[in-house]
Amino acid sequence: MLEQKNQTITENTSTSSKRYERTKRLVQGAMFAALITVGAFIKIPMPIMSFTLQFLFTMLAGYTLGGKWGAAAVCIYIAMGLIGLPVFSEGGGISYVLKPSFGYIIGFAAGAYVTGTIANRVPKPGYPRLFAAAFAGLAVVYILGVGYLYVIKRFYIGDTIELMPFILYYILPDSLGDITLCVIASLLSKRLIPLINRK
Q1: How many CB atoms lie within 10 A of CB 135?
Q2: Within its chain, how far is the Cα of 120 from the centroid?
């Protein structure tokens, strides 16, 4: 009887702990969705095209929440924009999927997942793992973002630019800024991951 009672208490404690963790992650996910929205309107001017701080906040979401919850936070942000809330840098609405830059937004979700998954394979990741996670996430963002951009410009808008000049034109000018954001996010996450995951 006593053993059964102890087992029931253990199960209830485990259930409460899981609920607490789920609620905690949902709140943190909503917080990062708000930060990503703010980041969409903080523009850093570059020679050819400006970039925003969205990438920084999506990486931090992956770092601190893990791959699954980090991607979920970005997906919340994407859903808000697609239902019409003006959270994207140029507005919102379902028609935004035809914007050439929408591939980068999709890339942010995938990049957050990759960054978070790689970084959180160990409880206390060191800088080599954090940097590797950031640049892996950046690669995913670029593959999806530039690929989507090329398809929309080539087949929807009708731009006849060739693939290699296109890549050189859209990747190289912004790569320095994005690499800088990778370094900043890695440095910040070294401090943030233990704080976020603290019981």
Answers
A1: 17
A2: 15
With beta carbons less than 8 A apart as the criterion, state whether 63 and 192 touch.
yes
Choose among 52, 79, 72: nearest CA to 116.
Answer: 72
Are the beta carbons of 193 and 64 closer than 8 angstroms?
Answer: yes
Written as one letter, the residue type at 24 is K
* CA distance linking residue 33 with residue 103, whole number of Å: 18
pLDDT tens-digit profile, the chain (199 residues): 545 555 555 555 667 777 887 888 888 899 999 999 999 888 777 655 566 789 999 999 999 999 999 999 999 999 999 999 999 988 899 999 999 889 999 999 999 999 999 999 988 899 999 999 999 999 999 999 988 988 898 888 887 777 777 777 777 777 888 898 999 999 999 988 887 766 5
Inter-CA distances, 50 with 1, 44, 56, 106, 166, Å: 68, 5, 14, 18, 17
